[in-house]
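Structure in, sequence out. Go:
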């Protein structure tokens, strides 16, 4: 899987104090695009169900039963799997983990990418050249392969150390590696986008005036540069979350993601695909988690597109 870059162009119109971000969000762009409103409501509902269903469901996510390979009915809305476990409960338990990996991984990407891009764009010169050459080198390497290498080489050692000190931590090692690995390979585009914005902003009059008044680089970056890149950062974050979720699902499908008894949408799809054979096609094992995953990625993309239009000063709505 190659580098994933969203295709959007944000305006270079600067706002000295960051004022206008909230007003543009309230401008009515969402009411003009019902699909964005529906997508946002779907995501809110998905998050609520992901936390509520596994807790309140009469069927535990890891609790088996006698009704193996039962098709969807009133008792089991998404059917059951090979162990008789309720697939509806497991899908939303898996969605919770997938969303958590996407949000945390995106947060890691945000921290590294924004810091890297702001420093490179503001100071420029040799430091900018060095930092961006590092980005170019990392771009030439397949990110998903780096995550696979990270998991296969370092995880056994870390898991052994964690299990010796606290056995319960051994199950969390893979999740932590996914957080760090997926976030660490997803910040490159963020850094490039932020750098381009900062290169334009650092020569604006309000930045020059602040520098003339004696403000240091840290204060300028925090008070003047960062507020003007918040909009594009928010947009890119909404477009990075589905990419990281897709990466996690792909790794889980290969058996390198979330490990049993935990489940993510990717592991559920992989388990369902493994149970399909010419003699018995249990379609719900793949269709139900696949539909939830596809709807989630689509909704995140629509919300990101809506935020782009709302936060772009040149957008006509």
């Amino acid at each position: 899987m190659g580098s994933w870059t969203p295709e959007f162009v944000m305006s270079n119109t600067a706002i000295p104090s960051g004022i206008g971000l909230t007003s543009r969000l309230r401008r009515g762009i969402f009411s003009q695009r019902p699909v964005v409103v529906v997508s946002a409501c779907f995501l809110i509902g998905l998050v609520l169900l992901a936390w509520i269903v596994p807790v309140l469901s009469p069927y535990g996510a890891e609790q088996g039963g006698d009704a193996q390979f039962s098709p969807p009915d009133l008792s089991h809305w998404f059917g059951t799997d090979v162990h008789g476990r309720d697939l509806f409960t497991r899908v939303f338990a898996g969605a919770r983990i997938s969303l958590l990996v996407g949000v945390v991984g995106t947060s890691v990407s945000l921290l590294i990418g924004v810091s890297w891009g702001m420093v490179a764009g503001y100071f420029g010169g040799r430091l900018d050249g060095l930092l961006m050459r590092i980005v170019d080198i990392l771009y030439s390497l397949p990110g998903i392969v780096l995550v696979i290498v990270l998991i296969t080489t370092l995880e056994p050692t870390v898991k052994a150390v964690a299990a010796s000190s606290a056995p319960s931590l051994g199950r969390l090692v893979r999740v932590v590696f996914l957080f760090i690995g997926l976030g660490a390979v997803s910040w490159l585009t963020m850094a490039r986008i932020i750098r381009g914005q900062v290169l334009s902003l650092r020569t604006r009059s309000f930045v020059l005036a602040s520098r003339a008044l004696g403000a240091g680089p840290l204060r300028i970056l925090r008070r003047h540069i960062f507020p003007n890149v918040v909009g594009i950062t928010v947009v890119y974050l909404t477009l990075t979350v589905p990419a990281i979720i897709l990466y996690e699902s792909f790794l889980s499908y290969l058996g390198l993601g979330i490990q049993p008894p935990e489940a993510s949408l990717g592991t559920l799809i992989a388990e369902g695909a493994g149970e399909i054979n010419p003699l018995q096609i249990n379609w719900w094992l793949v269709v139900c988690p696949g539909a939830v995953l596809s709807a989630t990625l689509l909704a995140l993309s629509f919300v990101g597109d809506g935020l782009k239009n709302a936060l772009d000063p040149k957008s006509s709505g």
